[in-house]
Design goal:
Number of strands: 27
Mean pLDDT: 94
Number of helices: 13
Low-confidence stretches: 23-28
Radius of gyration: 25 Å
Largest sheet: 14 strands, antiparallel
Shape: globular
Length: about 600
């Protein structure tokens, strides 16, 4: 291995899995904590552990609150730690059990949804019980999501904790809609790969040592970063039963998609210091009653197949299995605070040529869609480090999502209704009275990490054909390390015909955490250029600011504490458009006319407004 491919394999020892309760409890008492259910859960945990160990893999055993009251579970964890080197860790999932419900008088089970007072009490309760049972505090923990408040408290009170499962990539409105609007885990906007969270917001990578929350965090599952962005992520991850839920298997319940998913993650080391995979499962997914249309035997087969594949990769020297405790120092050894995560992802679900490029660093997270000519279809302002509190007693009881500036699926993107354009960043090419949008041109990309740490994404040429002119344009994106800035070049590499073309670089933006736009009345649009300083405050009146030679055009969005800026080294004409109530977006654009080979260079940057 030139660069290591790391696996974190995590088994959560739940005695009353939520999924099993709902499946097995039909016709019975609600949330029944039965001896048969707990016995089955322990049996399935033993099976999961055995399958991992038979394939030469060590695990991180996450003890739940309920399992800490069970002497058999404690003994099981100690035994596998001694015999196989498994880490004994602590989960902040699996809280519901008679002891928890009697003490806290609630049916809530998501740690981030509790009040700050209860978060601290629950953390102390679970950590102290763990210490009582094992004689030491855990070195890692986790949940579907851990907010900054909880992570900061854990690090302060239990500084030995070095790693945590802390987010689900793109588990938001899409997942909510596919659970019949019942699954209130809204976690959009975070990393898809490990990161060191900011003390201010756990979605955002830390900017420096002072911003470091002290804990290396990993996502809940390694998800297909294309399929789960376009659809329900709960069907497309490195969890074999997720793949079964997505019905992505053949008539013999073979799961080649899962292997392709693992392989594509392994391939990401081409652009990063390492590659990574994570599997995080509890026993509820393999209960005797089956899941979906798959019987128990099919569930077991999928897990056997997954463990066999990981084991095969390890035996071939292509994979290193680490516990969470082991992974934390490894990750820190490969990353400075400004080191980005890059991901060039090809469609492995439908067999198309669709391709996404994902990028995040302490300044922003974004996605470039080559199926739309290199349009930016997602943009999150990490630079703002928004102190987004979540839980009872806050303004956001359950929605922990990090806001977007661009989100093409929630806010229309290019393919939209007659009202206009949704949120997206792309370019247009004009000649005479005709105009084409780059979003209509499909292409592919290649990525290169430059010696100075910058990341260059170069797209294959796309062709624009007019009646009397044909031009091919190559788009290049340069992601500047440690700068919060993307430099964008549109270059005409082939030009057949007479006359000139005009290239327009544009961004249509908004902000939010779901499909619905809140009031934009605080937004300020401004331009600095030949006409001096011009500005207006958003009032849904379709006003414009234009300048024949701009230095910089900006949009300041106080609600997300962010300034979006576009500009160029050369003098380009620029325009800002206010938008209106039926199409609540703003629009920035830069324009340049060229004749023959040549191009247009501009930049996009994000900075904190306050």
């Amino acid at each position: 291995m030139d660069k290591p491919f790391i696996l974190n394999l995590i088994h959560r020892l739940e005695l009353s899995p939520e999924y099993s309760q709902k499946t097995n409890g039909v016709g019975g008492k609600e949330d029944e904590f039965t001896s048969s259910l707990t016995s089955e859960s322990v049996e399935i945990f033993r099976l999961q552990q055995r399958l991992a160990h038979e394939n030469g893999l060590k695990t991180t055993i996450q003890m739940t609150y309920a399992s800490l009251f069970d002497d058999e579970c404690v003994a099981l964890a100690k035994k596998d730690h001694e015999e196989h080197g498994d880490e004994i860790a602590l989960s902040l999932l699996g809280l519901p059990c008679p002891e928890f419900k009697d003490k806290y008088k609630t049916k809530d089970f998501c740690i981030w949804m509790f009040s700050e007072e209860d978060k601290k009490a629950i953390v102390d309760d679970v950590f102290d019980l763990f210490k009582k049972k094992f004689g030491f505090y855990p070195r890692s923990t986790g949940s579907y999501f851990l907010d900054a408040f909880t992570l900061n408290y854990i690090h302060e009170k239990y500084p030995g904790v070095v790693a945590a499962v802390a987010a689900c990539f793109e588990e938001g409105p899409k997942a909510y809609h596919t659970t019949n609007n019942s699954w209130y885990t809204f976690l959009d906007g975070g990393p898809w790969n490990p990161w060191i969270p900011s003390k201010e917001n756990s979605h955002c990578p830390a900017s420096d040592e002072n911003d470091d929350c002290g804990i290396v965090c990993i996502p809940h599952l390694s998800r297909d970063v294309m399929a789960c962005y376009d659809g329900n992520g709960s069907n497309f991850g490195t969890h074999p039963q997720n793949v079964l839920r997505g019905m992505i298997y053949d008539d013999k319940r073979r799961i080649p998609y899962l292997y392709n998913l693992i392989d594509q993650y392994a391939h990401q080391s081409k652009w990063n210091p390492y590659s990574y995979n994570m599997m995080f499962v509890g026993p509820g997914w393999m209960n005797r009653a089956g899941r979906w249309e798959v019987p128990y035997e099919g569930l077991v087969k999928s897990y056997e197949d997954a463990m066999r594949y990981y084991g095969k990769l390890k035996k071939e020297g292509k994979l290193i299995d680490m516990t969470m405790e082991e992974f934390a120092p490894f990750y820190r050894s490969t990353h400075d605070y400004q080191e980005p995560e890059r991901c060039l992802w090809k469609d492995i679900l439908y067999g198309s040529d669709k391709e996404y490029f994902w990028y995040y660093d302490p300044y922003f997270r974004t996605c470039v869609d080559m199926n739309q000519g290199g349009a930016l279809i997602d943009l999150r302002p990490y630079v703002a480090k928004l102190p987004w509190k979540v839980g009872i007693g806050t303004k956001s009881v359950y929605d922990a999502s990090y806001p977007y500036l661009i989100q093409a699926n929630y806010r229309a993107g290019y393919f939209t209704h007659y009202a206009g354009e949704g949120t997206i960043k792309s370019y247009k090419v004009r000649h005479g009275s005709e105009v084409y949008d780059g979003c209509l041109q499909r292409t592919l990309a290649r990525c290169e990490v430059l010696p100075n740490g910058d990341t260059e994404l170069t797209l294959n040429p796309v062709e624009f054909v007019f009646p009397d002119l044909k031009v091919k344009i190559v788009s290049t994106f340069l992601f500047k390390k440690g700068a919060g800035r993307i430099e964008i070049k549109r270059e005409a590499v082939s030009y057949e015909g007479e006359g000139e073309i005009e290239i327009e670089e544009y961004l249509t933006g908004a902000f939010g955490i779901n499909e619905y736009q809140t009031d934009m009345g605080k937004i300020v649009l401004a331009a600095e250029g030949k006409k001096g300083h011009q500005s207006l405050t958003f009032a849904y009146r379709c006003r414009e600011i234009a300048d024949p030679e701009v230095k910089e055009i900006t949009v300041t969005i106080p609600d997300v504490d962010t300034v979006v800026a576009m500009g160029a080294e050369e003098g380009l004409s620029g325009k800002l458009e206010e938008g209106y109530a039926f199409s609540p977006c703003y629009r920035l654009s830069l324009n340049k006319k060229i004749r023959g080979k040549g191009g247009m260079s501009s930049w996009l940057s994000l900075r904190k407004a306050s």
